[in-house]
## 1
Amino acid sequence: MAQLIMTRAYFTAATGAILLLKILSVNTPPKFFSTKNNINNKYLILYNKYDSLQLNNKKKLRDTDRNAISLTKEERSVFIGLLLSDAWLQKRKGWNPRIGLKQSIKHFEFLWYTFIKLSKFCSNYPYLTKVFKRNKLFYSLTIQTRQLNCFKEIYELLYQVPDNGKIKKVIKPELFDYIDYIVIAYWIMGDGSKRNKGIVLCTDSFSLKEVILLINILFIKFDLNCTIHNDCNKYRIFINKISLKKLLVHIKPYFTNSFLYKIS
């Protein structure tokens, strides 16, 4: 199979079409391929049938197929990093959770890079939305996953249901065992901003107690010296330039080119 994939990738490169190596698992629409190649990529499966779900197939999955979809350690870390930043989780009573991510159209590279990694959990491609703000038109792209049983672990880790019945994102001590360099990379890409040669993480939605817990995890597990910045009564984490330098070698491989400026 590896030889077949490499041969086809070389053939498409020779004819000027898009390389297949990067996009096999997301079933890129036929319009992106050269018609001369006569390649039907939906039959090229990387390692199991649930990594190449037909994204244009909106048909409801059988329970056995839905429950067979599982998270690898890397995929779980990507989701946790996204949820610590801009992503959200929806959970209706009696239903499995689903996860969504919305990004400005100018961050298309990051959203598509993320979608490629997580496409097996989705039934559709990213969709375009637009909104008027301050008399200007803004375009965004949104990824939304299926409602899957495999997300329950993440739901129980990062969410709780307060008295009002609406789920709320929280930071629990158990997060210590889940945070790794992949989590930090996606957390910074999603919600980090460069400041004084360091990084500020916009933890606005968390309480002071939760931000302190996050800082403790970063210090104990990764030896990062962090401080709390109070921006308009919102508590944010600042990672100084010395600690950022420690992180670089570990998190840079997971960064898209468009977001390297945040850590360079």
## 2
Amino acid sequence: MDNLKSNSIGTSSYQSPEGAESYMHYIESEDAATFMPVLTEAILARLGNNREAFILDGGCGPGWLAGALAETGRMNVYGCDASTLLIEAARKKYQRVKFEIVDFTQTLPYNEGQFDYIILSMAVVALDLERQIKTFQNMFKALKPNGHLIFVTVNPYYGYPVGVWKRGLWGFLFRKKPKLKLRPYQDCVRSKNRDFVWNQNLISYFYTLSEQVNALLKIGFSLDYLQEIASETDSSSYNLRYRLYRYPIFLLLDFKKTV
């Protein structure tokens, strides 16, 4: 996410063939190979030991997280995504998971109060705030009383577009690793255009932490737990492991459905 651009793709970019292909390419990258196990470990720590709990991976993409959860012996794992191509790929690879093509800003094809846990891992970063709120409302309905919404998002204080990894001319000449440079936070908050394109065909929105947390609290969730996701091991190369060892670029928030 090094180049901030005005969004000309729209919120359907992940559903387009180009967007799906870009995401599949990212999933096969070195950064994804770092991110996926770190995130899976953090989420498993929040799920507990009930192998019969009903779990929904919302915005599951090609299903890697849902597949990882099913491989731990959890019997009732579901996944949904708005991309037909990504769901088709998920169904081929992870046959123990029940996948559906779902736009989670619309009425969900699940029973009210069906799930013990719903996971939204970077799944609503491509939605404007109005659609985010609609998604949160739909997830609230699909959760059981006292169910949990596990929400993973970019840390707005260190992630792009506030945080940008750069190295100057001297750093380039002497082969130094890039360093994190922080833009003025309030400039990003006050910007009229909160959307940006990353990975060529995929969009995201910049949100403050308070905007997202307050939206969930207003719907009826309570914040149960907050974790800064980090890597426990360093890397000699400049990659996501190197960055996660130094800064909490991602956050995990566990919200409970209050009754």
